[in-house]
Amino acid sequence: MRSLFSSVALLLAASFVAPATLLASQAQQPAAPESPAAPESPAAPDTVQQTGPPSEFEPPPEGRPLRGVVWHPPAERAQAVRALDRMKKAGVEAVRTPLIRREALLDAADSLRLRLFQDLPAAYLSAGELAEALPGLRWELERALLAARRHPSARHIGLLGHSDTSVPRVCEALAELSARAEEQGPSGVRTYYETPFIEDDRCTGAADLALLDALNHERPRALLRRWRQARTDTTAPGATLADTLATAPDSVRAGIGALGTWVDPNTEGLRAPHSPASQARYFEKHLPLLLRDSARTQTAGSILPGTRTDSLPAPAVVFAYRWRDASPRSEAGAAEEAGAAEADTTGAAPTETVQAFALEDPYGRVYGLHDRGGAPRPAMKVVRGLYTGRQHVFAFDAGSAPPGRFPWLVLAGWGLVAVLGGIYASASRFRGLAQRYFASHSFYRDAVREGRLGAASVVPLAVVGGCAGLVVTVFLLAVQQTGPFVQMLRGASGQTQGGVMMLLQHPWVAILIVAAFYVICLGGWAVFLSLATSGSYKLGPTQTLMLVTWPRWPVLFLAAGAVVATTLPPGWVLPVSSLLLAAWVLVSIAGSARTLYDFAQMTDVSFTWAPALALLNPVLLAVVMVFFAVLEFLPEMTFLWHLATRS
Known about the structure:
Layout: H1 2-17, E1 66-70, H2 77-89, E2 94-98, H3 103-112, E3 115-119, H4 127-150, E4 156-161, H5 168-184, E5 190-195, E6 209-215, H6 220-230, H7 241-247, E7 254-260, H8 276-291, H9 294-300, E8 317-320, H10 329-341, H11 378-388, H12 408-426, H13 428-439, H14 441-450, H15 458-479, H16 483-491, H17 494-505, H18 507-531, H19 541-549, H20 555-565, H21 570-602, H22 610-615, H23 618-632, H24 634-646
Parallel strand pairs: 1-2, 1-8, 2-3, 3-4, 4-5, 5-6, 6-7, 7-8
Helix pairs in contact: 1-16, 1-23, 2-3, 4-5, 8-11, 12-15, 13-14, 14-19, 15-18, 15-19, 15-20, 15-21, 16-24, 17-18, 18-19, 19-21, 20-21
């Protein structure tokens, strides 16, 4: 029951937290688990293995960034070792993984000179949740340091992923863990964290490296510029921003923790958004800018002809997201169990923290350079060519433009107009009641008391419900990629995630469900109002339904605004839809107040009953549920608010 309440309350809270994202960029989504799929075809033995792995992390030649990839080791040992071999041949130097427990993989990484960036199982945590998880994290860190002493490849440890690093309490915990790693670990141990915050990240210096999440970001290099600019003193007289960035200390360098865009395997060609070719073009466009060496850029221009140059230093590391598509949760769990079976035996209890790689994309999207069967996508060719330096220009089939989506929202808006216009033209009593409502409200109350509209009062209720469904659906479509909404959806149950995905994929279903729910709530409130009357002042359900429905007439204009919002440029849809949703809430509250006033004027119900009748209003009930949800999940809600206003 608690789980059901949690999911419902958190989703209701989205309508209050997410509008704050007007000032925020979309929060993006972290690494998801990759586990074994169909076995790959056998590969020839590694012919590039080297001996004498580096004793500690050393910067690449000339200060260029490490070239990395995000990877979740499959359960089968041989398949995992072959994958590491193929990464090495593709020019990969760093591999971001969960905490690896299998000695065979660590040995393979040592021999291949691959640097493993291993994330501790702690992600998506608020400040309060991190405090509770800290004892478990200390144990996980000790286990990671034990492996680092034996394996030079395992000396990069991720302390925290995608958590609330805008809060000093989190930075104190990070600093403690980082100091513990430096004191107890071998020479060359480096710590890092991944943050969704740019300007408001407060943990700079708490670890050796900060990773920025550029997943699905249109300008990933701009994230680095913003992050560095926020931590650089630009007050020197006569110093330009470019000069300051070029002379800033290395301590403020950051890396890209996840670079990539999701793929729709059912589409083809560059003209189709999120096709495999579009994914490849994304890497072709952004990887050269991130891999460019700052020193070479200043002396010899760009590594690619026609690439824009600037003095922004290169990131410390760039991780392409990801090596292979994530597997279903059941397979991911099997992979974790397989790894645990080969873990070192310390006798300690497993931690209860959350692993970033164990949380899939809540929308079920795929990002891999390879599909689940191991077949490479065009993006793999791009990443291999750029990482090895053998190819810099790529050609892809343009394909045909995808068919446009059916305009369900526009059709719904015109449908509501047609229904309302039809009843206005065919029902003289409806026309008269509309004139009385705006011209002489006392005559309107008389008409309600006489029940002149009768059963036809259900039609305005249906129109009002349809308008509410249209406004809410447009808002959901606009907010689906924002950080707070994705974070809430990620923490919801699988059934809730599936339901939300179905509503987003089929807007007409969302309109019908929201409209039906709103109509049922208003109808139920009208019944309660009717039951509260008695004697000569008795009002029937159809009469109270008129009192409930008519004061909400401004939603007609909000529905028209929602239809217009669907035609606006992408950058305007979220602000406009958020304003429409806020206006709908205000209209609902004002309409409820008007309903109670008219109800009091027409009946002899005692004033003491007013609070009880008001609390039965669906809008007020939703506000109460959100209030208690905030109290129940205050740390999580605080994190959501920070994502909305700071990321």
